[in-house]
Specification:
Helix content: 25-40%
CATH topology of the largest domain: Alpha-Beta Plaits
Structural class: alpha+beta
Distance between the termini: 21 Å
CATH architecture of the largest domain: 2-Layer Sandwich
Length: 206
């Protein structure tokens, strides 16, 4: 495809995305409202933060206790951390929690839920149907939270657009893939990106 074709596809895609696709965009975590009382750290807006993440507060408390190795408790709507922790560390831990316990490992959608399967906690995505055992640790890497032109990715096509093109979600981006069929998992090469939308081509398997 020529460059002008990619631009036309992006123009068309921006005006035709369904509400369901838009809702799968990456969550924006509220900035933690932190105050300090002596050696204690208090997140005053914890209730609104955890509501946005749509997870049981107990899951986050257990996660943060393990990560920081200190006592943590709730005093709704506040979270009390028995140590002075800087805002950047709190922000990073919230981002890490989002990546491990909320965002789909396949398509990046936050529309997920945690289920117990046997003895394993599984993250199930309502957008693409993927199921993965929760990874207890996941390093935050800039290259893992974005999509780049010229790189190849594995995606699952979860919707067909009005013009018959396949659509998939990946790390908060919507991929437009001409010729792709709904439900298939394929490798694609990203050709052009604009804002949160990317045009990709199917990669032929050897």
């Amino acid at each position: 495809m020529g460059e002008d074709i990619y631009s036309k596809l992006l123009d068309k895609a921006e005006g035709t995305f369904s509400t369901s696709i838009r809702s799968q965009r990456r969550l924006k975590i509220p900035e933690p409202d932190i105050i300090y009382e002596g050696k204690v750290t208090i997140i005053r807006n914890f209730a609104s933060v955890i509501e946005m993440l749509n997870r049981d507060p107990k899951i986050f408390i257990k996660f943060l206790t393990r990560e920081l190795g200190i006592g943590i408790s709730m005093d709704p709507p506040r979270l009390i951390i028995n140590k002075k922790v800087d805002q950047e560390t709190i922000r990073k831990k919230l981002e890490q929690f989002l990546q491990i316990y909320v965002e789909c490992y396949e398509c990046g959608s936050p529309d997920t839920e945690i289920k117990r399967v046997g003895r394993v906690d599984v993250l199930e995505c309502k957008a693409c149907g993927a199921q993965h055992a929760l990874k207890m640790t996941k390093d935050i890497n800039q290259n893992e939270s974005t999509v780049e032109e010229g790189k190849t990715y594995s995606v699952t096509v979860n919707e067909i657009g009005q013009s018959g093109e396949g659509r998939a979600n990946l790390r908060g981006f919507t991929l437009i893939i001409p010729g792709a069929k709904k439900g298939e998992t394929i490798k694609v090469l990203v050709k052009r990106i604009r804002k949160g939308t990317a045009i990709a081509e199917k990669v032929k398997e050897d």
